[in-house]
Amino acid sequence: MEVKEKARAKAEQYCAYQERSQQEVRDKLYGWGLHQLDVENVIADLIAAGFLNEERFALAYASGKFRIKGWGRHKIRQGLLQKSVSTPLIRTALASLDDDAYREKLYELLQAKARLEKEKHPYKRKNKLLRYALSKGYESELALELLSDNEL
């Protein structure tokens, strides 16, 4: 079996394990010592066989980072940009997040952080909770709205 065929079989297993972006697979193939033409041919074969789908990856990435890690849209967008996902697919992935679940997740994160926060001064406390929400990638307007409407 030639090197390209071995790499294709290995890449199929790599993609079957979990959703991957084209850039992740491209980097892996280059790491295995393949040349550009071979890398692009293997990627085309993986796409044709259904092992590699950028839209499916973007949706899975956004959903997983939101549900499991509690990331907000800004942080998810940055992660997808680092994976070289196209802007239209990033928009699609972010739009797939349910707005009610998004608000609820941020509220839960803020409640949990508020329980652990030792700061008693209301202004400093609110500022720390806001900074926490921003560090998780949530929009400042939404975080401020939740912090103002609820005594955390």
Topology:
Blueprint: H1 3-17, H2 22-31, H3 36-48, H4 54-67, H5 73-82, H6 87-95, H7 99-116, H8 122-135, H9 140-149
Helix pairs in contact: 1-3, 2-3, 4-5, 4-6, 5-6, 7-8, 7-9, 8-9
**Number of separate strands:** 0
Q: Provide a count of the helices.
A: 9
- Sheet-strand content, in percent, reads under 5%
Q: What does the average pLDDT come to? A: 94
Main sheet specs: none
Could you characterize what this model shows?
This protein has 152 residues and is mainly α. Helices cover 74% and strands 0% of the residues. It has helices at 3-17, 22-31, 36-48, 54-67, 73-82, 87-95, 99-116, 122-135, 140-149. α1 crosses α3 (36-48), α4 (54-67) packs antiparallel against α5 (73-82) and α7 (99-116) packs across α9 (140-149). The protein is elongated, with a radius of gyration of 20 Å. The mean pLDDT is 94.
Brief summary:
The protein is mainly alpha-helical and 152 residues long. The protein has nine helices and no strands. The longest helix is centred in the last third of the chain and has 18 residues, at 99-116.
Q: Can you tag this structure with a few keywords?
A:
152 residues, mainly alpha, 74% helix, elongated
